[in-house]
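Page 37, top half.
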Amino acid sequence: MAGDKVKKGFAFYLLMLILILVAAFFVIITIMIFSPGQDILGFKYFSYNDTLTYIETTNDERPIDFSSISQINVECGSASVNVRKGSVENDTISITNNSIGFAKASDNTDFTHSITLEGTTLNIAVTEPQGFLHFSNDISINIIVPETAPENESVYGLQNTALVIKTGSGNVNIGLSNHENEELDATNTISPRMVDISTGSGTITFNKYCDSNFTDISLYTTSGRITSNISLKISDEDAYIGTESGSVDLANITFVNASGTKDVDKILNVQNSTGTISIDEMAGTVSIVTENGTFNFGTVEGHLSANNTRDRIASPTINANHVMQDVSIPYGNGANISLGQVDGQVNIATISGNVRIGYDSNLSSTSWISTDSGNIEAYIADRSGATGVIHNFETNSGSIVVTYNSEIRSANSLVSNSGNLTLNIRSRYPFLLEVKDSAEEYRTLSEDVSFEFIDSNEYEMPFYLNNYTGNENRVLMQTDGEIRGYLIPIA
């Protein structure tokens, strides 16, 4: 009985202690909420609910006139940045801070901002409250251009102004995504001359009411996202888009010359460490710098290259549906490359990476593809009347599969030390076939060497298929591994 009383007494006092601690906690929280910024037990509470509107600079009260400003610089942390047209009478900078949370006493929870003008450059800087727990972190910088111009003046949409924006986790929106009166496109559209935008984890978005014409574009996100609801037209000689581990998803990029027509020799530099970059339509040339990133291209009207990555490229994935000019990836290392159609010449070399090419529309121009342990799969259709075309496929231990969907009108080499080789052809097409081992000695038919399209009684190297009499249209198959030849139906 005495033991039960002790247990009940202990439980009562423990409950009382818990209630006192909970009450004390809520008392402390209440005091912190009613005393923002007060250091209590090494912590403090902050709360802001401000919207500040400026038509003048904050340091010397000079009027903000976007038409006389050549560049707008914005630097902030978690604040979002919105550049748009709006229902204002003057060029306006609006800063909203609705942030609530708790911070350590040592954290800076001050909210500071400045809008200054240096020559023709407008600088906007915002420092947000720092904390370990945010109940709200709605902070935004709004660069607002009037929707309508004063009487007898044209509407200015930043046509002569460059935007340079750097955020940490804040999103960046260029243009409105929608508008009440969608018929007033010219009035609602923002038209910056060029953009240079970088974020840590924020999203960069080009919205519907942003003009598609830029002199230059430079976009980068560490782990965020880059997306566009419009086509992007660029007139400079090159542009840049990059990410560390984020994603880029763009529908259309077009390089143009001074007259506004396409210029596919201008270059888009794309850099990607471990993220994903996807571009549906690319009217220009693509130059890739990567380690382990993924690239997805629809149509590339210019060249596709990764020529300067010998010391960096590791095991990326490079996919393209259609490249209309040359492909050059001479230091592919572990890159896995898949190209549905290539109209120009091909130069690809990997170590362990696989190459699949021509599966949508067959290769017809000269190609050099090599790998050490990777596999090669190629589809070829030589053009009628073509001369001097070479297709060279080479591995050390990987397999090579080549499918010919036309008459063989070129010089072809399928060469490996120990990998297996497969040739798929249509019947009745004449060409010269040579089958050798790695020591360049002719091989005979066996369990490891077989052809559906050769009568074993007639087999003798070199073999002239279908009464072929020349030596230009030929196929060399050389390996110590298996060699197979198959027929595919004539369409």
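Page 37, bottom half:
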Amino acid sequence: MKSFFARRALVFVALALVLAVGVAATAFDMDELRARWSSLSADEKDVMRERFERYQAMGETERAALAEKSRRIDLLARRMYRGLSDSERARFDDLGPKQRRELLREMAVDHARDIGERIQAKLPAHAMARLESASADDWVDFLEEFKRRQRLRMDQVLSNLGQELELDESEVRRLRNLDDDERGRKFLELMQRRSQRAVADLPPGLARERWAEIQQLPPDDFFEAIMELREAYPGFGRPPGSPLPPPRIGADDAEGEAVERTPVPPELALTLNRVLHPSLEERLDLVDLDAAHRGVEISKRRRGRILRLFEESGVLPDVERRRLTILPDGRFFHRVRSLLRHGIPVHGEEPETPE
């Protein structure tokens, strides 16, 4: 049986891919697929044959879910490639085709997992419990229901945005009647307009140059940048008077017990968020390692930087700092994200999250 954190990671990716918007389907290039197969070693071909046999043994529902997940990961990887800087793209394009595919897919999966964790923070505990224990068929049913609810919610969100941005009612109706992907793209464009209009003064720690860069991003990347900034500044990019999200109960408070917390200082939160996301430069420096060893080394470096940041800032109580030091990597990074989203416990030691 998969561990608690392995199952949760799969849930995060699934949730993120359900909500992936701003991407368009691309037909398979058969010449590219043949070239990929020819480039594989004998052992790699054996692995691929074994995977194909497992795929053939799946039911139709499970196959469809797997194919959709793979398609969206590939589309997300292409979008991330388009977002590289000129210097990053120059280094990346010097790699061989196999290394480029591996790195892009790693980045896409990590990115999807992070988005999924943000979504998870807004889900009721009973919904997460159902997902984590679900069979393949149950997953598909749950995610279809999740998508249906998101469509209904999007109708209301578009109506609200239309009022805020003073759009004609006919334009709002047109947006609500678009297909899911196109409606998602239009939603991101409107959110970008809304957020840019709402920002008058920048909070401490956010450089004016960085905000100028963010404003030049395409709508999907802009939206994700805003979501990341709101981890540190909950009211950033919201119109004056907008209600802030209610305090969230973290996984460590599953029994509902109140825990006194203090927020992570915003500037430290921004820095920690950057460290939690490995850059392409880091991956390129380790490109000669296989994917598994590269992941281990990246985790080791990130962990060291995070512990140093907490040590230098002095914001963690001794009990929390000791706890972080002994946690294995999966639990360590989950705990750091929990501290960023829910705050630092002021007193005592909270219950352990189960394996």
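Margin note: The beta strands are 261-262, 344-345.
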